[in-house]
Prior knowledge:
Blueprint: H1 2-6, H2 18-23, E1 27-33, E2 36-45, E3 52-59, H3 68-80, E4 85-90, H4 94-102, E5 106-113, E6 118-125
Parallel strand pairs: 3-4
Antiparallel strand pairs: 1-2, 2-3, 4-6, 5-6
Amino acid sequence: xxxxxxxxxxxxPLHCTVDDLRAAPHDYRAAFIGREMVGAIATGxxxxxxxxxxxxxxxxxxxxxxxxxxxxxxxxxxxxxxxxLTVQTGLKNLPALALYxxxxxxxxxxxxxxREPLTLVKLRRLSEGGLGEGR
Length: 135
């Protein structure tokens, strides 16, 4: 669905395999309704040293707009405590940008990538206690 939102005919995350996910240096948290996994969020170190990066946030299409993404984000915010967080998404992914803005993230950079090209946005949420690291 994100590829559609971004207008991308080629979208690298769609080519990610289970082995790719297992090899990634990420911590995963999942949301379940009963026994069904309805969403997941992956975090790891930010490659620029800005704290923890949200590498992926996915919600099953049947569960969009039902608070699953917000609940996953709340799990990460609680786990992260006072530390800074970063995330990247496509400029045209308005639902994700709205969720991140509601969670206190601000835009720090935009750049084009890929064949189309797509514009990516990096966002940062500073620590609750002040300016956070790297500022």
